[in-house]
TrEMBL record:
It is a multi-pass membrane protein. InterPro entries: ExbB/TolQ_transport, MotA_ExbB_proton_chnl. The accessory proteins ExbB and ExbD seem to form a complex with TonB. It comes from Thioalkalivibrio versutus. Belongs to the exbB/tolQ family. This is Biopolymer transport protein ExbB.
Length: 249
């Protein structure tokens, strides 16, 4: 072999070098595929979140906000829907006493927090791949380089005469493994940092929105089950309200 050929290892390399380059190729493909998927997801999440925030700003009351987000998607809409579902599922009473309000508040906060955690976990999907590739790819490439140099030196020692072409070709191709490891690791680390920052910003948005929704609900005059009744009336206009919730006054 008189000239540098990066694909020489795949045609004539031993199984270890072939496995190293195959693993690095798989790491690189997985990194870029996950990054593209997460980018599209992030764009959609931001669009859906803007719609949920617009619905919140346009709603003057808790029932109006519930009607506005009941068929929306996106993390903020899901958090809002879960907050209303907490009212639907609450089995206690809301009679205005401090004890009753505290119990309802704890129930709503717990459900909102659980919804936030689920949405954050969904947004963090794929981060472990970025972190693993960023940490492991350089060492996988270094393993290929060391193994390639070892094999090249053995081959050189068996030659009667040594020339620059004989040395440069095999050693250069062995060093390509290190470059391939860095080529796989650098984008993975960059994507990890970019998406991790985006997720921190989303977490701040979740916290602020959850606080606003919680305040809207707790300062409203909704009773447990009111949101469910409103939803039932939308799906069945002839449904009658629960008299037990509408006999006040």
């Amino acid at each position: 072999m008189n000239e540098f050929d990066v694909f020489y290892v795949f045609r004539h390399g031993d199984p270890v070098l072939v496995a190293v380059f195959a693993i690095l190729l798989l790491m690189s493909v997985a990194t870029w595929a996950i990054a593209a998927s997460k980018l599209l997801t992030l764009i959609g999440v931001r669009r859906d979140n803007r719609a949920a925030l617009a619905a919140f700003d346009a709603s003057q009351t808790a029932p109006a906000f519930h009607d506005a987000i009941h068929d929306q998607r996106g993390p903020l809409a899901v958090i809002g829907q879960e907050a209303f579902a907490a009212f639907d599922d609450y089995r206690g009473v809301r009679d205005g006493s401090d004890k009753a309000e505290q119990r309802l508040d704890d129930h709503v906060v717990r459900r909102i927090r659980q919804a936030m955690d689920r949405q954050l976990l969904r947004m963090q999907a794929g981060n472990i791949v970025f972190a693993s590739v960023g940490a492991l790819a350089p060492f996988v490439g270094l393993l290929g380089t060391v193994w390639g140099i070892h094999g090249a030196l053995i081959d050189i020692s068996q030659e009667s005469s040594v020339s620059m072409d004989l040395v440069a070709g095999p050693l250069g191709e062995a060093l390509v493994a290190t470059a391939a490891g860095l080529a796989a690791a650098i984008p993975a680390v960059a994507f990890f940092n970019i998406f991790n920052r985006s997720q921190r910003l989303l977490h701040q948005d979740f916290e602020a929105f959850a606080h606003d929704v919680h305040a809207l609900l707790m300062h409203s005059d909704l009773k447990p089950g009111n949101a469910r009744e409103a939803r039932d009336r939308r799906t069945d206009p002839h449904a009658l309200p629960d008299d037990g919730l509408h006999q006040e006054g």
